[in-house]
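User: Need the bound-state model for KG4:
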Amino acid sequence: VYTRLSDAEENERIRLAKNDPKNLATGVQDAAPRRDQRATMHDTAVLNARPDEHGITYKPLDAAHAEDVAAMESQVMGSDAWNAALVADELPRADRTWWAAYASGEGPDAGPVAGSEGASSARGTVLVGYAGGMVIDGQVQILKIGTDPAWRRRGIARQLISRVASDARDLGATTCSLEVRASNAGAQAFYESLGMHSIGKRPHYYSDREDAVIMEGPLQGVIGSSAVGGAADAKALRAVTEDAGIQESSVDVAGMTLRVDEAHDAQKAAQPAAQLERPLILAIESSCDETAAAIVDGKGNLLSDVVASQIDFHSRFGGVVPEIASRKHIEAICGVCDECLDVAAQRLGMERLTWSDLDGVGVTYAPGLVGALVVGVAFAKGAAWAADKPLVGVNHLEGHMYANKIGAPDFAPPAVVSLVSGGNTMLVHMRGWGDYRVLGATIDDAVGEAFDKVAKALGLGYPGGPVVSAQGAKGNPKAIEFPRAMMHSGDMRFSLSGLKTAVVTYINNERAAGRELNVPDICASFEAAVVDVQVKKAEMALRETGAPTFCLGGGVAANPVLRAAYGKLCKKMQVRLVMPPLSACGDNAGMIALVALDRFRQGKFYGLETDAQAHADLEQEY
Ligand code: KG4
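Assistant: Bound-state model below.
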């Protein structure tokens, strides 16, 4: 699987390097505290945004400090020193990672670096060390590492190189190399202590013609015992984090919180599932930003349902970044599947469950982010082939329809389903299992997308749905009259982009007029506009099809105002309302496993040529 540094991350680096003060509190620098949290979970203590015991703070290097680096370079590197322009030129590059160490203005022994009057001193901190690396072909080459002589013996070099190495690992590196002066035995011993060894010499490498010793070693040694964010051993971590009394236990896999829904409420009645009911199918879901795996048995019981969410990694970019999603799926998928097998084994009272104990492997193959889907599809194909089990491909949207079975096992078509998520907004007539007709869909944005964009305009963060909904609960839905686009279009299509623009324009106008925003009223009024149109079109769909059941699917189906409004509509129309439990509204593999079970029974298997697809026709024959 080919993944690369995300454009978003690259842009963030460029913005940081532009030395705009408002940017310095965002983006890459924000990674430090988050990493610190992960480090705590892993019982390690590095990558700390707060000062360490020596009063040193570590941050990604920004362009504002290029002068300081150049000043120290000329002090410690002599004629091989880099100037500020050279340093600044490095920072926005996608394959580079630079870190700096800062100390408070009063140095312990010698104070600030001589001659350094750069941005650090102006802010009451001084730069006391820096390191930069370049990632090429799976290797990070340390370009520079320097520390202020007055601040040596405080582990600064070790901390800096560890951070550069950790970033490099995120960029795909597995080894580390650098050059060191042949006469500098102390530095060579230091690098040896990090697991590196000499692999040769570069004659006359330095400007004074001294030779350089080339040293190389595995990245893990350089990151050290302080490693963070690496593929974690889910079992070991579970021992630390498991809370036996709760339904959902969470562990940490590759820095992601992994949620284990051991049994959804409606399925608890089915426990214990000690009797092994064939077929046993493990299904994988990776279409967007959740890596998930679930095992279903022949009776439709979900024996395990594991979700690792990447939301933390995407939230600072205000939305899902496809490249990050792909990388995180790769990091998480083994741990998630292992955990899924372990939980199912526990539920069945077995010591162990392996791939060969299964009868089939299911996987979401479409629609979604193709780079994300391909991780699940490739993994599922590999597993199915290795264990010699049949493969079943599943359409993600069909999964959302099947999610209704999780809350109501007797749910069956015919029904009208409203699919509302971050990527879809549509009404579908389910004439039978596998027999679908799309009644109407959005012509522009999806509902969840509109929630996310309104939240972004209000500075409420990502994902927007839950936070807009929480704010809206405190506001007046009639306070602001937002447009109800296509309400009277006479068909079942939707349009959300006009509403989104109206809300953003309202916010901008209020700000321009100097009025304080009433966030709860804005959220409540926006929600009311969304819900009015959804309900109107749902009513039309129910009348046109005469379906006796109405059901929901997708992340926005968790919205309480929408759920209540549909409740009222269905009561009025005397139609059965079925809704997935809140935990099954968003992406999960339980719903994919339920589809895979049906397909397995029908003998509808997929070949190993199956590929991920960004789009898929829901109306095709299954
Ligand atoms: O189905 P989902 O988890 O992912 C895909 O889009 O595939 O849906 C995520 C979307 C996001 O846009 C999120 O803001 C929205 O669902 N969402 C909500 C709520 N919870 C999640 N929207 C409105 N109200 C909510 N309570």
